[in-house]
Design brief:
By secondary structure, the protein is mainly beta. 10% of the residues lie in helices and 16% in strands. It has one helix and three strands, in the order βββα. A three-stranded antiparallel beta sheet has the order 1-2-3, covered by helices on one side.
Length: 81
């Protein structure tokens, strides 16, 4: 198995860090990830906000233009908690 690397990226427009999180703190969020044919994955969105640089032609077909995350939150009230 290949060793994973640390991944850093710019946050999508509209996504906000939860209140009370320090600059070195951790938090959980909903990630939309797309499987690719070669077995790798692509981070599509965080909490329904599309990642910078995500190509429109890679977007899954959905009525909700923000992606799967928003559609899931519409089905699962209160985020499933």
């Amino acid at each position: 198995m290949a060793k994973s690397k640390r991944i850093e990226f710019d946050l999508p427009d509209g996504f906000t860090i939860p209140d009370g999180i320090s600059s070195d703190g951790e938090f959980e969020t909903l990630a939309t990830i797309k499987m690719k044919d070669d077995g790798s994955v692509c981070l599509v969105a965080l909490d329904g906000y599309r990642m910078p640089g995500y190509r429109e032609e890679d977007e899954p077909e959905t009525e909700d233009k923000r992606g799967y995350a928003q559609a899931a939150s519409d089905v699962i009230p209160d985020g499933g908690y």
